[in-house]
Amino acid sequence: MRVFVLCAWLVTAALGSYLATVWIRNGGLRQRTPGVTRLPLWLVLGHVVLAVGGLAAWTVFLLGEARSSAWAACAVVLVVAALGFTMLLRWLPSSGRHSQAGTAERHFPLTAVVAHGMSAGATVLLVVLVVIRRM
Question: pLDDT by residue (tens digit) across 37-55?
């Protein structure tokens, strides 16, 4: 089951990498002015850096059976999920006063966002279940 969690995490990371590539190619790094983008750089980078850190902690747990690494990965993946959910809520199309047609996040394919979110949800659930089962 622990290796299955790793596979789910890697699928989620691959889908996230695709979304990050779309965001960067469409000027996400250049859109730093408030009101221009709904996904500020700190939010995107925080999500990515913490996700990679959680994946590293899970890998350490797999290789060394360190329970503390599993708990760290569990805590980190919950924070990453919260940041991802925040990005999803900010990404959802709206016609509000901050909505602009030229933002980088407008180029995200809906299927990629849904696939990333579903695999992320499965990953979070699996991590929590494995960690609780190992208590």
Answer: 678 888 999 999 999 999 9
Closest CA to 39 of 96, 98, 81: 98
DSSP string computed for 37-78:
BSS-HHHHHHHHHHHHHHHHHHHHHHHH--HHHHHHHHHHHH
Contacts of 84 (CB under 8 A, 6+ apart): 47, 117, 120
Name which of 25-29, 61-65, 70-74, 91-95 the model is least confident about: 91-95
If you average pLDDT over every residue of the chain, what do you get?
Answer: 87
Alpha-carbon gap, residue 120 to 19, rounded angstroms: 13
Provide the Cα torsion 110, 111, 113, 118; round to 10°.
Answer: 140
What is the C-alpha to C-alpha distance for residues 50 and 95, in angstroms, rounded to an integer?
A: 31
Q: Name the token pair of 81.
A: 């999920």
